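Run log // design_07
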């Protein structure tokens, strides 16, 4: 019996030779080489409008919407039958990708889009996102779970769910706790920092502990938020101490959440993406 097919791509945290806080993969879009942010918080695969123009890709508006990292709903265009291939992984069979304007600071870094890894696996298979080791693998679910267990660390996601509206795509939400309150957080490798919405139960408790403001970054750009330094964030058996952002935005009605679980927690995790059975193991980050 032949071994099951495995797809694999390297993740990197460098852009133009400098450290970059979000995971990147090298891709070719319509013959044009660029890189994409691997973003579990993305509802669809997205390419930047400047890439679409570079390769003369026809786009149309079909009522698709996307929610950015500040909770704003954005109307976007789409491109049918875009040819996209991931280095080491191979070509993707995509009926369409979304096209939108991405932050101008990403273009000089050679970043031309956002890849939604939770949309990659075929039925019966899972995408293993090893953010700790720097690799993304699509393989049979049992193999992915075996690799997750072997990676070691605390079990991080006690419960997960899939949400999103008909025109908003697919998002993953995981159970956590902060300031003694339960919280459902969007799983978001496209956000540098974890955050709570100020109107959530945990966010209301956090407001009493806020210390100043700061600028945070996500795949959709920068936004200003307040923060609680060294806040304890519990995700299953894993506890992280982070500067937790408190945001004024509100979640999309199609995916009600209390905030985001970002790379300040997820950088040390090995995640098996498989819908509402998504699981992970995490270890403390090393300084």
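design_07 sequence
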């Amino acid at each position: 019996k032949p071994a099951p097919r495995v797809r694999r791509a390297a993740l990197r945290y460098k852009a133009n030779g400098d450290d970059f806080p979000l995971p990147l993969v090298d891709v070719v879009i319509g013959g044009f080489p660029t890189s994409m942010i691997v973003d579990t918080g993305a509802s669809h695969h997205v390419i930047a409008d400047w890439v679409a123009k570079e390769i003369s890709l026809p786009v149309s508006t079909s009522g698709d919407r996307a929610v950015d990292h500040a909770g704003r709903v954005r109307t976007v265009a789409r491109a049918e039958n875009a040819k996209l291939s991931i280095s080491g992984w191979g070509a993707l069979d995509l009926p369409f990708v979304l096209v939108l304007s991405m932050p101008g600071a990403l273009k000089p870094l050679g970043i031309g889009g956002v890849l939604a890894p939770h949309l990659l696996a075929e039925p019966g298979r899972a995408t293993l996102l090893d953010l700790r080791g720097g690799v993304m693998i699509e393989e049979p679910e049992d193999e992915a779970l075996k690799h997750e267990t072997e990676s070691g660390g605390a079990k991080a996601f006690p419960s997960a769910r899939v949400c999103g509206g008909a025109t908003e795509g697919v998002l993953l939400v995981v159970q956590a706790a902060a300031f003694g309150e339960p919280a459902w957080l969007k799983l978001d490798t496209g956000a540098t920092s974890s955050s709570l919405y100020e109107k959530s139960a945990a966010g209301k408790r956090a407001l009493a502990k806020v210390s100043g403001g700061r600028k945070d970054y996500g795949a959709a750009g920068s936004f200003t938020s307040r923060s609680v330094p060294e806040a304890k964030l519990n995700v299953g058996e894993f506890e992280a101490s982070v500067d937790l952002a408190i945001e004024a935005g509100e979640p999309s009605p199609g995916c009600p959440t209390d905030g985001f679980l970002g790379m300040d927690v997820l950088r040390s995790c090995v995640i098996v993406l498989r819908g509402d059975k998504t699981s992970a193991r995490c270890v403390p980050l090393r300084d």
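The chain has a mean pLDDT of 88.
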